[in-house]
């Protein structure tokens, strides 16, 4: 059963606007940088929402948290330029802070109603071993905000809007693959733009991991397309794409 076709969802690669909500300033590039660059190259409007300030993303004790926030804001802009981001929203919750899912949901509703994107993208909070509280809270808050934005809640925050789809990256349950072979170098460059996080001795190892994972996704994409002998010469990114209807009282969504 092609549930996406039944629900009238267009392919992720065809959307003309996408709102990408990331817990930290580098998550969108790591999880979906190639796809976002591909979308932007095709004329899609790419909007970023960065939920936390990333103040605890470094291990260099000589740098103050406030200084690191400024560094990461600059890195966020540089990476966004590489990918093709047209607008940034920074919610500025404290990294690993005592904010709630409800706080994030309430902040996202007016943005969703204002931008009215054809797709929303975020990290998958239900990945089996995801232990980072920011990823857990933000992913769930995004899903809740998508539902709430189409209700009468926060009536003073714009007209209700029904987001057509949510694409979760860093997922263990992908149902959609995007060929990013032509944008692989852009993805890596946009990740490395976050120098405070990646310009270190671990970068070569991380590149090997990113390449291995992307080649696996490319093979899975070809299998899903019915290719008799899948190749692993290209690169792909993986997503769990769901409609709002599948985000409430729909346990079968796990297997779709």
Automatic annotation (TrEMBL):
SUPFAM superfamilies named among the record's database cross-references: LmbE-like
Taxonomic superkingdom: Bacteria
One annotated GO molecular function: hydrolase activity, acting on carbon-nitrogen (but not peptide) bonds, in linear amides
Protein name: Diacetylchitobiose deacetylase
Organism expressing this protein natively: Alicyclobacillus hesperidum
Pfam families registered for this protein in UniProt: PIG-L
């Amino acid at each position: 059963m092609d549930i996406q076709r039944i629900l009238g969802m267009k392919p992720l690669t065809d959307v003309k606007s996408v709102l990408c909500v990331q817990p930290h300033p580098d998550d969108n590039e790591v999880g979906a940088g190639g796809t976002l660059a591909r979308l932007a190259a095709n004329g899609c409007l790419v909007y970023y929402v960065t939920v936390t300030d990333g103040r605890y993303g470094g291990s260099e004790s000589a740098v103050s948290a406030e200084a690191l926030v400024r560094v990461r804001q600059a890195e966020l802009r540089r990476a966004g330029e590489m990918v093709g981001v047209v607008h940034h929203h920074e919610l500025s919750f404290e990294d690993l802070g005592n904010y709630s899912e409800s706080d994030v949901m309430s902040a996202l509703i007016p943005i969703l109603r204002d931008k009215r994107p054809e797709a929303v993208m975020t990290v998958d909070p239900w990945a089996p071993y995801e232990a980072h509280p920011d990823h857990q809270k933000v992913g769930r808050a995004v899903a809740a905000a998508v539902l709430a934005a189409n209700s009468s809640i926060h009536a003073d925050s714009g007209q209700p809007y029904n987001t057509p789809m949510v694409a979760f990256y860093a997922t263990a349950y992908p149902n959609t693959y995007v060929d990013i072979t032509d944008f692989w170098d852009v993805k890596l460059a946009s990740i490395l733009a976050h120098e405070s996080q990646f310009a270190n001795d671990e970068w070569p190892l991380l590149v090997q991991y990113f390449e291995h994972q992307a080649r696996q996704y490319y093979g899975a994409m070809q299998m899903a397309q019915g290719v008799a002998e899948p190749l692993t010469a290209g690169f792909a990114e993986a997503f769990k794409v769901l409609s709002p209807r599948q985000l409430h009282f729909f346990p079968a969504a796990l297997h779709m």
